[in-house]
Amino acid sequence: MLQLVVRRLAAMVPLLFLVSLIVFGLVLLVPGDPAITIAGENATQAQIEATRERLGLNDSLLEQYWRWASHAVQGDLGTSMFSNRSVSGAIAERFPATVSLTAVAIVMALLISVPAAVAAATSRGRWLDRFATVGTSVGVAMPNFWLGLLLATALALNLRLLPATGYVPLDDDPVAWLAHLLLPGFTLGLAAAAELTRQLRSSLIDVFDQDYLRTARAKGLRTTSVIAKHALKNAATPVVTVLGMRISVLLGGTVVVEQIFGIPGLGQLAITAVLQRDLPMVQGVVVVTAVMVMLANLAVDLSYGYLNPKVRAQ
């Protein structure tokens, strides 16, 4: 298991390098000149050139990338071109909101998918199974921006059951923190719940046909005990794989959901940075997001050791 962790961490280095190169190149393709935006539309050419020189935009692309990368490996992601704030500080300020939203979405996806998949698998071919199949199709196809607007209008604005916008830090008020994240968390996690339900239902049906499950039933074990102690653990490996793949989708979905519900997270920060062509901020947000996805995938790999003893021995 230790060798697995070391190999995964070592593989992150070239991958991060590749991600930083791609982001650096794509950001440069965004139309517009940040020097003109910062100096103002009425600025003279001399003022624009002075701004370009101050920002280091007159240097070669290789020099600009090396200057940014050499500081990034030390934890310094640069300074915003517009606010003169530290990129690392701005990301650290927005990071808890995005992580909280993603975590709530994952928990809600699991709370929905596990009971739904068990109910569908144990009722294979009957109306409950067909209902779950239709429900997962709707959940996968439903756009999260439409669902978010619908939930905010119905539950927040009309019924006033939950807050429509905003975010409260966990250490300030845990109850308010959860209340502000329930609607956006459900909006973000519904598609993941639908996909996980499909995968877990299929895995459970395969496990139910195994001989050791028949033996457990023949011994007189209750159905709930058979499912909880034997079936779920053995059916969870492909589901964990799908969950790991969904992490990147969930983090990407925060861009839209944070805008709808007014959550000051990395998604809002990224949109603002792109619109302003704030190159250091965009690069910093993308690199931090890439690290989050890699660490999540590492956690998924480590979970295989718990689910499969053969992996634990490697």
UniProtKB/TrEMBL annotation:
Transmembrane segments: 9-30, 95-119, 131-155, 175-194, 239-261, 281-307
The name this protein goes by in its record: ABC transporter permease
Species this chain originates from: Saccharopolyspora elongata
Lineage: Bacteria, Bacillati, Actinomycetota, Actinomycetes, Pseudonocardiales
Entry-linked SUPFAM superfamilies: MetI-like
Membrane topology: Multi-pass membrane protein
Pfam family, one: BPD_transp_1_N
UniProt-listed GO biological process terms: transmembrane transport
Annotated ranges, domain ABC transmembrane type-1: 95-304
GO terms under cellular component: plasma membrane
Family that this chain belongs to: Belongs to the binding-protein-dependent transport system permease family.
CDD domains: TM_PBP2
Predominant localisation class: membrane
Cellular compartments annotated: Cell membrane
UniProt keyword terms in alphabetical order: Cell membrane, Membrane, Transmembrane, Transmembrane helix, Transport
Entries under InterPro entries matching the protein: BPD_transp_1_N (IPR045621), MetI-like (IPR000515), MetI-like_sf (IPR035906)
Record Gene3D superfamilies: MetI-like (1.10.3720.10)
